[in-house]
């Protein structure tokens, strides 16, 4: 099935983003409507399906149903073929595009995880600084000192 562009994903409309993404992948358009939306002949759409360039959904009656993502993919195929790229080249370009989008998704996930870890490290460092600044007395452990500091000197409810 077609994927969204990174620009679409950035706006929250790609398949990775909530309800809008699911809507983009929802099979809606019969082949006649898809042909009209893309300016292609229905037989061309069938050939593209046979070659694996697009994979429309199917209704219970086995009718081809194209999603908005499929329409976008078909428009990209049309643009590439209009520029003189043959179908074998289009297949390679689409494959590279899919791999690039997958890497972008992985990179986005790694960035999110790095931000999470940075937050955890910051919190840990702040706890270390507070603990180092707090005087230890006979009243307790670093955790108890932290509780007292966080409670602004109020008595520890656990005592």
Mean pLDDT: 82
How many DSSP H or I helices? Answer: 7
Classify the beta-strand content into a percent band.
Answer: under 5%
The helix-and-strand class reads mainly alpha
Please provide the ordered H/E string of secondary-structure elements: HHEHHEEHHH
What's the total count of β strands? 3
Outline: elongated
Strand order in space, largest sheet:
1-3-2
Tell me the radius of gyration: 28 Å
Helix content: 55-70%
Distance between the termini: 61 Å
Largest sheet: 3 strands, antiparallel
Low-confidence stretches: 1-17
Report on the structure:
This protein is mainly alpha-helical. Strands 1-3-2 form a 3-stranded antiparallel beta sheet. 63% of the residues lie in helices and 4% in strands. The model is unreliable at 1-17 (pLDDT under 50).
Helices and strands in order:
Elements: H1 6-10, H2 18-24, E1 29-30, H3 31-38, H4 42-50, E2 57-58, E3 64-66, H5 68-82, H6 87-133, H7 142-150
Antiparallel strand pairs: 1-3, 2-3
